[in-house]
Amino acid sequence: MGLLDLPTELAVQIFGLLDVNDLISSRLICRSTNAIYNGSSLLQYLFSLRVAGFIDHGGHMNVRHKLHLLRTQEERWRNLDLSNKVTVETQHTPSNIYDLSGGVYVLGDSERDIIRRRTLSLRYLDLHEASLKSGLVTEAWPQLSFGAKIIDIGLALEEHDLVAVISRKKRGSSSRIDLLLRNFSTGKNHASAAQPDIFVNEYHGMQSPRFSIMIEIVGTYLLLLVTIPSHISSMDTLFLYNWMTGGLHYREEAPPGTWSGFVFLSPECVVIPNMTTNTLDIYHIDSAGDFEWIRRLALPYLVTNATILHVACRADPNPWGRDSKGYQNRHGHGRAQPPFGSDPENAVVLFKLHTRRFIEAMATPFTFIVHRSALLRFACMRNLAYPDEPDLEDEGVIVEWEDWGPANTRWGGLEEERSRWITCTAGQRQVLLKGNKIVVRDYNPFEVRRVLATHGTAGSPGGVEYDEIQAVEGSLTIRNGQRTVTVVTGPSICEGGVVLENNVESSLPYVEITAEDEVDYEGMLVNDERLIGLCVNPQFEQTFTTVERLDIFSLSSFGLDIVST
């Protein structure tokens, strides 16, 4: 019996396991396969998910509705449709603490402490609920109080409905740091945490230490980085906890100025930029919870007497733990959960570097983008990150920049670094401001191929109305009314200035769409379903990112459209 002789339902399941390219080839060479595809909403949905770089979140929504929502959302992103807009005012005094995760925007509340701007509680905005409103929204945001001064937070809303709070208690010249584990939906002790309050460390002999904290939660792991940049004698410290048991798996210290951030590449692999060695260091977390250094990816060489001052990095969404059971509706938090979202493995990682040569007064910023999967691949560690994969040949501990970087990254300078917010990527998309215009870049290789196939290097419009098409070596620009689309496939040069030995060449392909209407935002945020433009109080913009108002642009019809079953 041949494949096409099987019952259609079984054939659909088999075709649904194919790679995207294999399914495309099968449809092109076999009419029967193409007919099966055209007749199956499930197969079309699975195919569309993979092309978009998304995964299904489960739930009870029927497949036809999910397919409709996905196609509509992707089309709105391609057109950068900003017609669905709502404006929300902040009714509290924001601090500098913020996060964007799980469809929720969190802002610290200084509770009218406009001088020191200490974070005394958290306020949050459900972006889905806000998007369903219209005009100007002025209601007070819900508040979470923990009876402590907050110096940073970490969120794992989809996986655990968890907010991890780092609190500080000051006694004279000593500062005690604690980790508080709470259900985000209630603010109460997290039901899965055996020790909801965990002592982290106590720091002595510091009158006013300014802590720099980073927290990420994946599965049962909570990785915490504590640095004090203002105190050159204070060590950078990594803590790895099992947040459910409260146990400390691992602790490691490094000289000050070594670390400032990290990103989970998989549930057991972490990349940590090393500012001393000018490398990306990749670690594997073994079954005992110990860190094993497995690979070092070199960055472009610095000139003599130049150094990296700070590296901020982020990828969204985070991977989930191996034992996670999917999107967590069981917590009863009441927030609407979208039927699909970005696949963590396909997401891009954003790195923001601040560098300086000792004789220069000003720092020189650089940014670069790379896929999570590329970092894992060039770390030669897919066998540990994904045990079912065959082992790859070990090519040595250090991978030179020329061997991994140029083809797999895209570098930028001051323009890309303009925003103070790191929450400007979601999945494979990045948002930035060029002058006063909103720009979205999509690093999805399937989107790059789609635009090139639609328009072609010869400027064929493919049935789409356009004003102008320009093709130059390595890029294609399509102007259509108030949108300009540019496909960049060739190399670009980022000038090394006074800190890099050479200019940096990079060639990760992307599609860039620019909205030609000018806006007045200090920064832009993004998640899978929406863009957020931030307006700040000009009185404090040099010292605080005091968000007064945000414009939410919804590119998803989730919660709005109803499709018949």
From TrEMBL:
<feature type="domain" description="F-box">
    <location>
        <begin position="1"/>
        <end position="46"/>
    </location>
</feature>
<dbReference type="InterPro" id="IPR036047">
    <property type="entry name" value="F-box-like_dom_sf"/>
</dbReference>
<dbReference type="Pfam" id="PF12937">
    <property type="entry name" value="F-box-like"/>
</dbReference>
<dbReference type="InterPro" id="IPR001810">
    <property type="entry name" value="F-box_dom"/>
</dbReference>
<protein>
    <recommendedName>
        <fullName>F-box domain-containing protein</fullName>
    </recommendedName>
</protein>
